[in-house]
Design a protein that fits this description.
single chain, alpha/beta, Rossmann fold, Elongation Factor Tu (Ef-tu), domain 3, 4 domains, six-stranded antiparallel barrel, 26 strands
């Protein structure tokens, strides 16, 4: 290993200006991986065995002839090496005497835009590469837009492969002028343009004699000296509580990382959600107590008072409180093959807090190629849009442009628990603060007592033709004969009135169930047992309705029948029309049905008569004390 090769100790000790996080982005084959590989190689930040392995891999997979193919240093997946492309985000850590660096190499292909967004989410600076032969392309604009959306304000325009245009000064300035028009539309704080050849190292770490007309810095010089406005210590104090540390009765601390600002012993702090106040008594670490902790420090805070704090709470400076709202507008980058659906319930994770959240409106999409706003009803993979959100619990946040750590969130699919979107909060929907729940003199329990029953939603779900409406009608008839107060919400009846404006696309199906759930909740508030008979094909929407009412008040009744039986019955002739192509998006035929995983009641309509199945539902209500004598 060379004497000045990077060691972990050097990375820890070196750097006068802290850590610079940057990423490379741009179109396919612009040389992103090659640039980083060259940067590391010329900076002598590679071990001997890494260099030997790189030479072997270059001979096997490389595209640089007998020379080293530096792209292979970061393209670590076998698929990447075989295809000659970057698929995943590759991170590398290195240091010089002046600064430490964390660099992310991101994919150039459009289908991997979500990976590029992942790399940009923590970066202070972006290097946007442009092939000198091709100039500014669609993907150049796309990556620039996403970098700006994710809070990056410092750009390096790396005009690469200058050797293939004879290092022409005119071509360089032509590309710079073209990109400046793009950057002016977005509003980057600064753009530094550098002509280079990553393959041969021109203007990467050493000044090239082939561009005597260029008098600016090399890439490494710029990276070592650029001043980025990412000093999180200058922002207001924010501390998301990761863990309540209670090893014994004599100690209670709140563990986490200071994401912005500073905190000192004796400082006043406030719980953003509850407004409870206290004072910092101790700042505890594994190496002993501190008098002060800065942004980025992982510590345990001990407060002078015992106040109610749990994981997900945000400790803040009382003089600079964040927004607290359950309704806000945010830009979303969608990262899932299944589209974002307004009305569908997702999990929103912001900091250490999680809460169910619904997109109440997609205000517009953003064409990331032209930056134009366009109407839309859903967001597909890699699309960006401005959405209004409604969360089950108020969340504390700062606008993303002010604080990326407390203004950014992810969306999680509630069924798969996979991350499906990344969001950047723009502002609170302040008008919602003028709308409050009206306190009523008579509550749900009093209304239910007058009716001598406990209210509930009986939610009958299953394929068309399974027998949902038949069983639900029999259950209501039996309840009525017992003197109980009921109402049936049937799918066909609802579409004649409340939901007559909705079709049968996936978006409309989600909105259909959302509206029905809100109506059913009002019936429960009225003390009524409401029977809902709907295909309701998606688990996430059925879960959304369950969460609208109290514990135990939602009873899922899975009316089960094989698709073959339902087709044979076909009471409305719908399957026949679907097979003839007259009905699109028909559940069980060309649209999916997700059966319940933990239904309270399962009724097999092929194994018993409807009257017997209705009795089973009544028995469940009696056993669960919904029908007191």
């Amino acid at each position: 290993m060379p004497d000045d090769a990077m060691t972990l100790d050097q990375l820890t000790r070196s750097g006068e200006q802290g850590v610079l996080r940057f990423l490379t982005c741009g179109s396919v084959d612009d040389g992103k991986s090659t640039l980083i590989g060259r940067l590391l190689y010329d900076s002598k930040r590679l071990f001997d065995d890494q260099i030997a392995s790189l030479k072997n891999e270059s001979a096997k997979f490389g595209t640089a002839g007998d020379e080293i193919d530096f792209a292979l240093l970061l393209d670590g997946l076998e698929a990447e090496r075989e295809q000659g492309i970057t698929i995943d985000v590759a991170y590398r850590f290195f240091a010089t005497d002046k600064r430490k660096f964390i660099v992310a190499d991101t994919p150039g292909h459009e289908q991997y835009t979500r990976n590029m967004a992942t790399g940009a989410s923590t970066a202070d600076l972006a290097i946007i590469l442009v092939d000198a032969r091709k100039g500014v392309l669609t993907q150049t604009r796309r990556h620039s837009f996403i970098a700006h959306q994710l809070g990056i304000r410092h750009m390096v325009l790396a005009v690469n492969k200058m050797d293939l245009v004879d290092h022409a000064r005119a071509r360089f300035h032509e590309i710079v002028a073209e990109y400046i028009r793009v950057s002016d539309e977005l509003g980057f704080e600064d753009v530094t343009a550098i002509p280079m050849s990553a393959r041969y190292g021109d203007n990467v770490t050493h000044r090239s004699e082939k561009t005597p007309w260029y008098d600016g810095p090399t890439l490494l010089e710029h990276l070592e000296t650029v001043e980025v406005t990412s000093d999180r210590t200058s922002l207001p104090f924010r501390f998301p509580v990761q863990w309540v540390n209670r090893p014994n009765l004599d100690f209670r601390g709140y563990s986490g990382t200071v994401v912005s600002g500073v905190v000192e012993q004796g400082q006043d702090v406030l719980v953003a959600k509850s407004g409870a106040r206290s004072t910092i008594e101790r700042i505890v670490t594994a190496d002993g107590d501190l008098a002060r902790a800065d942004a980025g420090d992982a510590v345990t805070l001990v407060l002078a008072d015992e106040i109610d704090i749990s994981r997900g709470d945000l400790l803040v400076d009382p003089k600079a409180r964040p927004e607290l709202s359950s309704q806000f507008a945010a830009h979303v980058i969608w990262m899932d093959e299944k589209p974002l659906m307004p009305g569908r319930s997702y999990l929103l994770k912001i900091g250490t807090a999680r809460t169910p959240a619904t997109v109440t409106m997609l205000k517009h999409k953003v064409d990331v190629n032209t930056f134009e706003r366009k109407p839309g009803r859903t967001l597909d993979l890699n699309e960006v849009g401005l959405c209004n959100f409604d969360t089950a619990q108020p969340v504390a946040f700062d606008p993303y442009e002010e604080n990326r750590d407390t203004g950014g969130f992810i969306l999680i699919d509630r069924s798969t628990l996979q991350t499906v979107g990344a969001g950047m909060i723009d502002f609170s929907l302040r008008r919602a603060s003028n709308i409050h729940w009206q306190a009523l003199e008579v509550d749900k329990s009093q209304r239910a007592e007058l009716k001598h029953q406990k209210p509930a939603i009986l939610w009958f779900t299953g394929l068309s033709g399974a027998g949902k409406s038949t069983v639900a009608t029999l259950v209501e008839r039996k309840l009525a004969s017992m003197g109980r107060h009921t109402y049936v919400l049937d799918g066909d009846n609802i579409r004649h009135g409340l939901n007559r404006d909705l079709g049968f696309t996936e978006v409309d199906r989600v909105e259909n169930i959302r509206r029905i759930g809100e109506v059913a909740r009002l019936f429960v508030e009225a003390g009524v047992i409401v029977l809902c008979s709907f295909i309701s094909p998606y688990r996430s929407e059925r879960r959304l309705v369950r969460e609208l009412v109290g514990e135990g008040e939602f009873i899922e009744v899975f009316v089960d029948a094989p698709i073959e039986v339902c087709i044979a019955r076909d009471p409305k002739g719908l399957y026949k029309k679907a097979q003839a192509g007259e009905i699109k998006n028909f559940t069980g035929f060309d649209s999916p049905y997700e059966p319940p995983e933990h239904a309270e009641i399962t009724l097999d309509t092929t194994a018993a008569q409807p009257d017997e199945l209705a009795e089973r539902v009544i028995d469940h209500l009696v056993r669960a004390s919904f029908l007191p004598s």
